[in-house]
Amino acid sequence: MSDAGPKGRTGRRDEAAFAITPPQIVGPFYPIRERPDLATNLARPMGSAAEAQGQLIYVRGRVLTPSGKPVPHALIEIWQANAAGKYRHPSDMNPAPVDPNFKGFARLTADASGCYSFRTIKPGRYPTAEGEIRPPHIHLTVEGRFDRLVTQLYFAGEAENLADRWLNAAPHPDRLIVNLQEPPSHLEKHAMVADFDIILASG
Ligand SMILES: [Fe+2]
């Protein structure tokens, strides 16, 4: 009798329990002028007079290996457009306004169990230099002990998801798309929550 079942001695069946998060391009707006703050609250950066404009969201999840082991203390960098689709970046030619209360970049560390969360606003869609419209998305880099993944997170139900060539170039675009859900009672009533586990190939 084989022991190749889900709980077999080798555990091999379990190795594909979590599918690797597909990579995405860095894009032109990786922060270059300022070192991103060590922070988890992008919706109200240190020194801001008010909250950033836009739909408040919490993104939360775990950084894991394909076998489901936590990747402790992974370093996560985040960069994104504001609610109007504008990056605070010298290369962004979009005439949409800058939000004085939104920087759109930060870095943070997952905890010992691989858990992370950050508070931000849902980014707006924006035109590219080639005349395409990119769907709302958040850029992330995730650095574990062995891997450095560059990827992007997208939101379910956005019309531009269907045509976006970067999202659709991913081997499994669905792994990069999150659903916004109602918040748990300890968060603001007007917030929405997205769960996004990040699976690194080696950890
Ligand atoms: Fe982008």
Overall shape: it is globular
> Order of strands side by side in the largest beta sheet?
3-2-7-8-9
| Structural Rg | 18 Å
Which CATH architecture? Sandwich
DSSP, total strands: 11
Separate helix tally: 1
- Overall number of structural domains: 1
Mean pLDDT: 92
Portion in strands: 25-35%
The CATH topology name reads Protocatechuate 3,4-Dioxygenase, subunit A
Description:
- The protein is mostly beta strands.
- The protein has a single domain, classed as Protocatechuate 3,4-Dioxygenase, subunit A (Sandwich), CATH 2.60.130.
- Helix content is 2%, strand content 27%.
- The protein contains 1 helix and 11 strands.
- The strands form 3 sheets. A 5-stranded mixed β-sheet has the order 3-2-7-8-9, with no helix packed on it. Strands 1, 4, 10 and 11 form a 4-stranded mixed β-sheet that branches. A two-stranded antiparallel ribbon has the order 5-6.
- Helix 1 links the parallel strand 8 and strand 9.
- The longest helix has 5 residues.
- The N terminus is likely disordered.
- The site of fe (ii) ion (FE2) has 5 residues, from strand 7.
Looking at this protein, list some descriptive labels.
2% helix, Protocatechuate 3,4-Dioxygenase, subunit A, binds fe (ii) ion, four-stranded mixed sheet, disordered N terminus, 203 residues, single chain
